[in-house]
Every structure is written in C-alpha cells, then in structure tokens.
TrEMBL record:
The chain holds residues 111 to 381 of 381 of the full protein. It comes from the Bacteria. It comes from Sideroxydans lithotrophicus (strain ES-1). This is Diguanylate phosphodiesterase. Residues 24-271 form the EAL domain. One of its GO terms (molecular function) is cyclic-guanylate-specific phosphodiesterase activity. The lineage of its organism: Bacteria, Pseudomonadati, Pseudomonadota, Betaproteobacteria, Nitrosomonadales. Transmembrane segments: none annotated.
Length: 271
C-alpha cells in the first residue's frame, strides 16, 4: 500500500482544527458504519491485451460513498482501516464482491486468460484464515481459481516474510495467481520478485507516465519488461493515458495495459 500522506488527503485537509488522532477515531467510526450500511462499492477498471487490443480482465478498486464527505478515495481511508484491523472485514468484502460480480464482468471479456484482480492489504495475510476464505469464496461461487488474481506489494510480506511465503504458496497451490503491484517503487522491488511465486508484474504508473518525456524512465520500463519476461512473468503497464504511450509499450513487448486510455474504474452497472 502506498504510504499515507495527510497533506494529500481531502477528507483530512478539510478539518485541520482537530488533531489527527481525533480524526482517525471519527474515520474508524465512520468505516464501521459504512460496513453496516453498505456504503462501499467495487469499481472495475479494464486491463487490455496490448497486442490484440482485447479486454483481458479487470482490477477491482474500492470506493466509499460517504454520506457527508461524498466519494472518499481508498488512499484516504485504507490506512486507518489497516491500523484498526477493520481492513480484514473490508478485504473479505472486496474479495466476495469481486467474485460475485465476476460472472457479469466475465461476459464482457473475449480472451483466453480472463481474470479479475483484487488488491491485498498487509494485515490480511497474517493467518491461515485468509487462504481458507479465498478457497471457500472461489469454490462456493464455482469460479475457476486461476481467474482470481491477487495483487500485492512488498508491504504485504514485509512484516512476516516466512509466513507470507507459506500463505502465498498455498494460494498458488489452490490455483490462484499473484501480481506484484507498483513495481519499481519503494513498495515493490527486486527482492519480492526473487522470493515469491509471482506470475505478473505491474509497472507503476510513475514510470509509464514519464516514459515519453524521460529517456531514463523509458529505460526503466524497458528493463522491467525484459526482466519480467526472462523470469517467465507477464507484464501490465499501469496508468496508460495516451495512444503514444500504448504504442511505445507495445513496441517494448509489454503484454497488458491499464489506464484511462482503456477506461477509468467504473461501477458494475456501467461496464
Ligand atoms: P493500485 O492498486 O496501484 O491501483 C491503481 C490506481 O491507479 C487506482 O487508484 C486507479 O484508479 C488509478 N489509475 C488507473 N489508471 C490510471 C490512469 O491512467 N491515470 C491515473 N492518474 N490514475 C490511474 P485508486 O482506485 O484511487 O486506488 C488507489 C490505491 O488504493 C490502489 O492502487 C490500491 O493500492 C488501493 N486500493 C484500491 N482499492 C483497494 C481494495 O479494494 N483493497 C485494497 N487493499 N487496496 C485497494
Ligand atoms: Mg492494484
Ligand atoms: Mg497498481
Ligand atoms: Mg499504483
């Protein structure tokens, strides 16, 4: 998970008279209510096969329709949920929701390896419970396990690398696939690649959005794609906003693309 920066947060910036602790407490209270009142919604963003241009999958991204604040970004509340432990309930909900929505999403896809990817939070992977939950959800819904991709960053494994490796291996055994999110940033680097059974690399938007103006970023993107392929991983470029970026990535042999060029995250009813 990207580190939280209070100065970037609209929900916090609005209320500078109170201390962060008070605001955190209020937010934790609101999150509990949001879970009860079903104020969360999953949005889905297309991920396209760059060579054929075909839709291959979707990333599930959580949205919060706050009764007072309006739409609250996940960057603004997930870190609080992480601290309070509420992230486990949220995480389970997102997983369930994405798998429940999958049959509808699936009908939009005409690709040989269709998938929906769900983001994992650090404290979701601290016990055996999680692996069982994933297996139960997938089998109850009769979903082919390989169609569920779990996205993680190094922050997911950093606290307890041995346990994480054990749990991630169990998920792979159960048939799910893993993607390393935000590759190239401090959250995900080479260490994660060589240690964990990860099938997909997602190159962070920071590099993609600069690759046409900075030769340095372009080189990093190129080297990342080569590295992934030499490790038999496939690659998703995040944050593609222009046709020129798409063409440059296609030229470099990148497998998949995600970004506003293909579509913004949207409610299931608009997909
Ligand atoms: P992420 O997993 O790296 O997700 C990609 C983020 O980039 C999303 O932001 C998406 O809306 C945004 N994005 C995609 N394409 C473009 C583009 O072309 N241009 C720009 N400017 N942005 C683009 P979002 O939805 O605000 O999510 C932010 C982060 O919050 C995610 O980063 C992920 O780390 C976390 N997150 C979101 N939903 C969940 C969830 O259900 N569970 C967990 N644990 N984390 C989540
Ligand atoms: Mg992600
Ligand atoms: Mg990402
Ligand atoms: Mg990212």
């Amino acid at each position: 998970q990207p580190a939280f920066d209070p100065s970037q947060s609209t929900i916090f910036r609005r209320d500078t008279t109170r201390g962060v602790a008070t605001q955190q407490l209020r937010l934790a209270h609101d999150i509990a209510e949001a879970l009860r009142e079903e104020q969360f919604e999953m949005f889905y963003q297309p991920i396209c096969d760059l060579s054929s241009g075909r839709l291959a999958g979707f990333e599930a991204l959580i949205r919060w329709h706050h009764p007072v604040e309006g739409m609250v970004s996940p960057m603004d509340f997930l870190w609080v949920a992480e601290q309070t432990g509420q992230i486990r309930e949220i995480g389970l909900w997102t997983l369930q929701r994405a798998c429940l929505d999958w049959p509808v999403l699936r009908t939009r896809i005409n690709h040989h390896k269709p998938f929906v990817s769900v983001n994992l939070s650090p404290s979701q992977l601290t016990g055996d419970g999680f692996v069982g939950e994933v297996k139960t959800i997938v089998s109850d819904l009769q979903m082919p396990p390989r169609e569920l991709k779990l996205e993680l960053t190094e922050t997911v494994i950093i606290n307890n690398p041995d346990l994480a490796l054990q749990l991630l291996s169990k998920l792979i055994e159960a048939g799910s696939t893993l993607a390393l999110d935000d590759f190239g940033t401090g959250h995900s680097g080479l260490d994660a690649l060589h240690r964990y059974p990860i099938g997909t690399m997602k190159i962070d938007r920071a590099f993609v959005s600069q690759m046409l103006t900075s030769p340095h970023s372009a080189k990093i993107v190129q080297a990342s794609i080569e590295l992934a392929h030499s490790l038999k991983m496939d690659v998703v470029a995040e944050g593609i906003e222009s046709e020129d970026e798409r063409l440059a990535l296609l030229e470099l042999g990148c497998d998949y693309g995600q970004g506003w060029l293909f579509g913004k995250p949207a409610s299931l009813k608009n997909i």
